[in-house]
Amino acid sequence: MQARWRTNLVLLAMAIAAWLPALGAGFHYDDLANVVHDAATTDPAALLDRLTNGFRPLLRLSYAADYKLWGMTASGFIATNLLLHAATVLGVAAMARTRLAGERAVLLAASIFALQPTNAAAVAWTSGRSTLLATALMVAAIVAHERGNGAMRWRVASLLMMLLAVLAKETALVLPLLLLLWEYTRPEQVPAREIARRVLPAAICAALAAAVALGASSRLQEIVSFSLALSAPSDSLAVNAMALPLSLSLWWRPWALSIEQPFDFTVAGATGGAAALLGLIIAAAMAQRSRKVLVTLALLWPVVALLPTHSVLARLDPITEKALYPAWIGPSLALGAAAAWAISRIPTKSWRTVAAAALMLGLASLCTWRAVVWAEPSVLWREATMRNPESARAWSNRALAESAAGQGAWARRSVAQARRLDPEDERVNDAALAVSLALPPTKELQP
Fold it and tell me: Which one of 51, 284, 339, 375 is least enclosed by Cβ atoms within 10 Å?
């Protein structure tokens, strides 16, 4: 028990310390529409109206609670994000204890989850709250499900956590499939009928929740209608399938991280390759089930977790970092086990400790770097224009961020580039007007 508490304390301290620079962030980009200018954040009457609409009511309640607690202070909202992330990390540690041997493996697995640089889009950004809150509740549901095989109260708690997760973000409806994968990859073989008995209540609740959400939320209906109008389901599926490997590759390419990712493949040119790669992943996962179930879990978990965002509904941004947050849980468990095994091969205990500490400190440094980038919008969007120089949206958002930072000359250059790329875009022209009306610059970046 002491070892478990010690592990949890280390995880809490590390998860919060690594992301602490995010507290310096202000509200930016989607935060303005989602939080700052949304009356539901500050007005109880508007909040009640929004709750009756049924679209992510728990998320809206969390924003309103933050406003009551912190006022319209961005650092307060981010502090809540950090606490939610820390709670999720402890939940991942609890999941790891059911599958991994020893506290070292648990510590490494939860650390690998906590210190993934792509998590910045969920942790270091107020508008990442929907994914963060839903994932925290999904992890709580899995932990309760694990304990529910022996007590009815835990089964009920698991279903309740799942429903709350759906109220935070509708993508949590994928949880029954994740539970199915969780049962399928147990170290001991579980009969198919028993797996169905364990997962069926969650599947029924998810189906009912989906029906109620689609029927009650006009906003959700608008999103689905917009998505279907944007692209045919078959084309959306092809594009999302192509985007999936590129999204997953961001876990291993921190130098490629950006709030705006380029994506210019044609459906005809890359669908076959993406389908073949996904087929290989699934085949490799199935082949390992009888020998290394953690490998199966690691390979299939991201594919299942990303189904809500990489299926038949079109998205304006096929490649995003935020959706990768819950998808990293399964790989983290397998990587934690592998890291623990590799460290155990080191003959000296002191050097084993040094190796584990070096791994965690290295990952923490990457997280701190990403938190610093997200804390400064002008830096974040400058990075975006470097990664995707043909995006008018990236250039116009960079212009707005530079203007807000008092970098007037840079803002004028950025908005001019945005207008060259897409002179007909209303948002680009709105950004140009905002920059032209801004106060004279107070500070400039050196070229």
Answer: 284
Q: Exposure string (b/e) for 101-137, b if CB count within 10 Å is 16 or more? A: eebbbbbbbbbbbbbbbbbbbbbbbbbbbbbbbbbbb
**Residue finishing a domain among 346, 375, 404:** 375
Q: Are residues 166 and 246 in the same domain?
A: yes
Give the residue-averaged pLDDT of 340-344.
Answer: 93
Write the DSSP string, 129-182: HHHHHHHHHHHHHHHHHHHTTS-HHHHHHHHHHHHHHHHH-GGGGGHHHHHHHH
- Provide the number of structural domains found in the chain: 2
Distance linking the first and last C-alpha atoms of the chain: 56
The three-state secondary structure class of 368 is helix
User: Is the residue at 443 inside a domain?
Assistant: no
Report DSSP state, residue 346.
Answer: S
User: Is it the case that residue 269 has pLDDT exceeding 90?
Assistant: no
Q: Coil, strand, or helix at residue 231?
A: coil
Q: Compute the chain's Rg from CA coordinates.
A: 22
Inside any domain, residue 222: yes
Q: How far apart are CA 22 and CA 83, in angstroms?
A: 12
Residue 275 has pLDDT above 80, yes or no: no
Task: Output the pLDDT for position 444.
Answer: 45
Summarize pLDDT for 130-174 with one digit per residue, the tens: 999 999 999 999 999 998 776 788 999 999 999 999 999 999 999
Q: What is the mean pLDDT of residues 12-27?
A: 93
The C-alpha angle 381, 256, 328, rounded to 5 degrees, equals 105
